[in-house]
Amino acid sequence: MNRSEGLVQRKNVHTSSGDRTGTGSQDKGGSGIEDQKPLENDEEDVDAKETRLTLMEEVLLLGLKDKEGYTSFWNDCISSGLRGCILVELALRGRIELEKAGMRRRSVLMRKVLVKSDTPTGDVLLDEALKHIKETSPSETLQSWIEYLSGETWNPLKLRYQLRNVRERLAKNLVEKGLLTTEKQNFLLFDMTTHPLTDNNAKSKLIKKVQDAVLGRWVNDPHRMDRRLLSLIILAHASDVLENAFAPLSDDDYEVAMKRVRELLDLDMEAESMKPNAVETMWGVFAAFVK
Questions:
Q1: Which of 49, 78, 157, 162 could form a disulfide with 151 if both were Cys (CB 3.0 to 4.6 A apart)?
Q2: Is the pTM of this model over 0.85?
Q3: Do residues 170 and 56 touch, judged by C-beta distance below 8 A?
């Protein structure tokens, strides 16, 4: 599901490019996402002073309209994208992994998902998905779990694995973290609960983080990028909300940003999953959405 083409019309806002489109930063070390040593458990890599958001919450936050408090009615990608986020989040937290490739080297999508640790994460959605994976015997493949958690399966016996009301539950998490509020809005024939933005600073930081990753702090090697940030970019694209982060950019910066996102989407995910220290589950989820 490659969605790098056919992007929606964005605002034509001219901003100062600064040094973001320059190539000099590619060869420099220093702070940020460059040269970050991959961590086996990215959960430890947290700035305790800031509100910690999961990948699912960040993707939803990018997709929500600030004032209206709901995602686009035309977005039919975000549901499956959020389930992909859940699997990546569990992998980055060291809860799940893929079975060994074996002599015939099966593709990452066709390898079964195993529970590495059943220690609760403290997040209800993550723990619900982890419980499903743990209790399923025999184990299921990564491709199957993406379908099961989304409810996109023809097998009625697997529908019990579907995670329901994911967007609403994530929005309530963001309300509890002080980023959103809850309102009721009338849409002629029905009332809908909406969640307008209350913390503009948090969303601005998130957008800037995404922009910087493909502009001023771009490195031409996904394995030198922060795993969580790399996942956010690819899964936000899979969820059709990445455009929202790039809308404020100038035309020049926008073109550079999209060119670099396409470079990430065009990677051979199977080959990347075989590199040293790679989180195979993460690359497998990427493969599911860009194949």
A1: 162
A2: no
A3: yes
Tokens 């995602």 sit at which residue?
71
CA distance 109 to 239: 19
DSSP string, 92-133: HTTSEEEPP-TTTT--GGGSBEEES-----S-HHHHHHHHHH
Note the pLDDT tens digit of each residue in 3-54.
443 344 454 444 444 444 443 333 333 333 344 444 444 444 433 344 589 9
